[in-house]
Amino acid sequence: MLVEAVPAPQRAAVDALAEGLFTRATTACPAVDLVAFAADLARHASAAPDPVAYLTTVRAEDMALASACATGAAWALAQFEQLYFREIDRAYARVRRSAVDPQDFTQRMRERLFVATEERRPRIADYAGQGDLRTWFRVAVTRTLTTEAMRPRRDAPSDDGEFGEIPSASNDPELELLRRKYTSEFRASFRRSLEAMEDRDKDILRRVVVERLGIDALASVYDIHRATAARWVQRAKEGLVRGVRKDLEQHLRVPGTELESILRLVASEVDVSVRALLPGA
Predict the structure, then answer these.
(1) Is the pTM of this model over 0.90?
(2) Contact, 110 vs 103, CB < 8 A?
(3) CA-based, 20 to 30 A from 141: which of 12, 29, 107, 198?
(4) Same domain for 54 and 181?
(5) Are residues 119 and 236 in the same domain?
(6) pLDDT tens, residue order, the chain (281 aa)
(7) Quick one: 35 and 147 in the same domain?
(8) Are 183 and 147 in the same domain?
(9) Torsion, Cα of 160, 154, 152, 116 (10° steps)
């Protein structure tokens, strides 16, 4: 996914960079979903004027945390708040306005930062790793708080304007309804896609997802470097996601907009489905 996001002449250079980026990401955030992390890197790299230059300078550690927050990972959300939410108090001290209730504002920041809408990705997903994550969050908080403090009290904050500049996505009621509606179709699609995978990829998923083997332990099993192990895990999950999406497109007869929403669920369902469908050793 990451290599495919850049022009063919640059793919060798990106492939060489990828191993280091995955190593830094898993070192900083061992539980990060490498499929989602790679997808976020690919999205930002493809939008950059020079993808190789972007990947050379990207702050992989901060990107890993932001990517995990965008998937709704509880550990990542808790870590983000612990590390950065004091910036909200500091912003209040700078703005010195009492029109905005601190607790209400903090909750609105959570919702706008970590909750996706039908129209856009989680705003944390807008963070591209070009600069310190703390600074990015501080600027977003200060700009938003200043705007709200200047707004008449009777006016409700808008989802547009300053929040559109802030870079969430789980806990989406629409996606939860779709998950329940198409449970049997999801299971069948994951089963078919798992059966079509190569034995090594299935074994990797079984060890990492079902047996909860860490990257270092997996590297020891296969006698490879931990960065290589991380890449194998990422590729196995990526291959499964790609297979499930293709299978669902072929088997589900639903409107295009609903299908797109269903496909958004696939990456978040990988671990749950693998645990249900692949037996342990």
Answers:
(1) no
(2) no
(3) 29
(4) no
(5) no
(6) 554 544 565 566 667 778 889 999 999 999 999 888 988 888 888 777 788 888 889 999 999 999 999 999 999 999 999 999 999 888 877 665 556 777 888 888 888 898 887 777 888 999 999 889 999 998 888 877 776 665 544 444 444 333 333 333 334 555 566 667 777 787 888 889 888 999 889 888 888 888 777 887 788 778 888 888 888 888 888 888 888 888 888 887 766 666 666 766 666 667 767 777 776 54
(7) yes
(8) no
(9) -20
Mark whether 220 and 90 lie in a shared domain: no
> Is the same domain home to 161 and 202?
no
Give the domain range for residue 14: 1-170
162 and 233 co-located in one domain = no
> In the block, which residue shows the tokens 């079984």?
206
* Whole-number Cα distances in Å, 124 to 4, 107, 221, 227, 258: 24, 15, 35, 26, 24
The count of domains in the chain is: 2
115-132 in b/e form (b: 16+ CB < 10 A) is bbeeeebbbbbbbbbeee
Asked if 161 and 147 count as a contact pair (C-beta separation under 8 A), the reply is: yes
Rounded-to-integer distance, Cα 124 and Cα 168, Å: 6
Is residue 45 a contact partner of residue 54, using CB atoms and an 8 Å limit?
yes
